[in-house]
Structure formats: structure tokens, C-alpha cells
């Protein structure tokens, strides 16, 4: 498979760390122009400079994806600066597991706001460009980062898992809706992966469980490789769902 992405115009949300950062680097290394979205402007600037230094093209935009107006404005700016987006990696997410009886309603809401509403804001802002790009170049990609938690049961992960089940199911429906318009839709479902995601967890039981499987976890680069592969396939091929597990994770 030829994984050159020269000429592609990509957007990665959650590009300031972990899977998003690794994906942005690999897309740029394959020749895509990459718009980097997240809240931490300093981290995005550093990443953009690093990509530019190695001959790539990147554009940093400090955006909170839970704010629909800001996301829409960013989509317009990217179109003007780079051209029509043909590869969207909808990756920003947060994981805050805790026993439901603790009623951490603040954490429930943060996960729903980002993993569902934020993801939808990004879909809404960029789908028109993806459809235009699909018609013009024969294929465009909408890659949503879901999780193995969309289907596997992990103790105390109810709200997070439900947000990811939403992402996987949404992706299946959007694929059926947009495929005939030459927009491929994929859900990527990673198992446990090294990133900053686990640093936000406040529940001690989950922290201990994570520490126990630290050594077998995937690297963010492994997920990035899979996203690059997905977007590099011939236009007729759409990986609908890709589950990537650490070899040692049951
Ligand atoms: P990180 O915490 O390293 O990355 C999360 C990214 O989301 C950061 O770049 C963060 O940047 C960004 N983000 C958070 N809130 C917002 C917001 N309101 N607006 C815009 N960007 C935001 O974790 P991962 O790389 O692991 O997570 C990426 C995706 O992978 C998530 O959807 C996660 O659910 C999924 N995933 C991760 C797994 C793992 O084990 N790591 C397993 C399965 C799925 P900033 O704070 O600068 O805004």
C-alpha cells in the first residue's frame, strides 16, 4: 500500500498530545498539510514548528471543540489558508472513569460535552468540506477515534464507554450516509495506549489497574500508523471499524 498523502489537506483535533500529536506528525511526514486543533496553543505552536523544521506544513489553531462557533470559524480559516479539507481526524477526547454511585456529575458532563458534543461540532463544521473534496478528488476521509470501551466492559467506565459507543455507532451511520458522496467514514477503536489520557483519571482503583498494564500498552504512534493506513487505501476501500489491542491486553 502506498502511504503517500501528498496534496491531502488534513485536520487533527486533540493534536497537542498523545494519539493526535503522533497522527499529525505522521500525516505531515507523508506530505499532508495538517491543521492542528486543541486548547493548548503553546503545545500546538511547538508541534507546528517541529513539523515545519522537518519539511512539513502545519497550522496551529487554539480551539476548544466544545464551542461550536469557534470550531466553525476555524473550519473557514483552514479552508482559506490551506484549501478544502479532505481528511479529518476527530480525536479529541477525555476519559474520567469512576463508580456511578459517586455521582461525579461534573465528570459525566465533561465526557459528554467533549466526546459527544465536541465530536459533533467538528463533524458539523467539516462535513461540507469533506463532501466537496470527495466530489472533487474522488475520496475524502472522516476518521473518528472511538475506543475498545465502545464494546468491551471495563468496571466503572460506564459514561466514558457510552460516549465511545456513540462514536462507533455514529460512524457506522455516517458511513452509510456519506459513502455514496465519496466520503469514507472510519471508527478507530484503540485499547490501552500511552498518552496523557490516563493522567486525568481521579479514581484510585482505575489508576491502579492502569499502572498494572503500563508495560504492555500501545504507543500513540501505533494508532497513528493505523490512521495513516486507513486514509491511504484505494478510494474503493473503507475500513469501517478498526480495533487495535495491545497484544497482552485481554
Ligand atoms: P490525550 O489526553 O493525550 O489527548 C487528548 C487531546 O484532546 C489533547 O490534545 C487535548 O488537548 C485535546 N482536548 C481535550 N479537551 C479539548 C477541547 N475541549 N477542545 C479541543 N481539544 C481538546 O489522550 P489520547 O491521545 O489518548 O486521546 C485521544 C483519543 O483517543 C481520545 O478520544 C480517547 O478517548 C481515545 N482513546 C485513547 C485510548 C488510550 O488508552 N490512550 C484508548 C482508546 C481511545 P488540550 O488539552 O490542549 O485541549
TrEMBL record:
<dbReference type="InterPro" id="IPR036291">
    <property type="entry name" value="NAD(P)-bd_dom_sf"/>
</dbReference>
<keyword id="KW-0560">Oxidoreductase</keyword>
<comment type="similarity">
    <text>Belongs to the short-chain dehydrogenases/reductases (SDR) family.</text>
</comment>
<dbReference type="Pfam" id="PF00106">
    <property type="entry name" value="adh_short"/>
</dbReference>
<dbReference type="GO" id="GO:0016616">
    <property type="term" value="F:oxidoreductase activity, acting on the CH-OH group of donors, NAD or NADP as acceptor"/>
</dbReference>
<feature type="domain" description="Ketoreductase">
    <location>
        <begin position="8"/>
        <end position="195"/>
    </location>
</feature>
<dbReference type="InterPro" id="IPR057326">
    <property type="entry name" value="KR_dom"/>
</dbReference>
<dbReference type="InterPro" id="IPR020904">
    <property type="entry name" value="Sc_DH/Rdtase_CS"/>
</dbReference>
<dbReference type="InterPro" id="IPR002347">
    <property type="entry name" value="SDR_fam"/>
</dbReference>
<protein>
    <submittedName>
        <fullName>NADP-dependent 3-hydroxy acid dehydrogenase YdfG</fullName>
    </submittedName>
</protein>
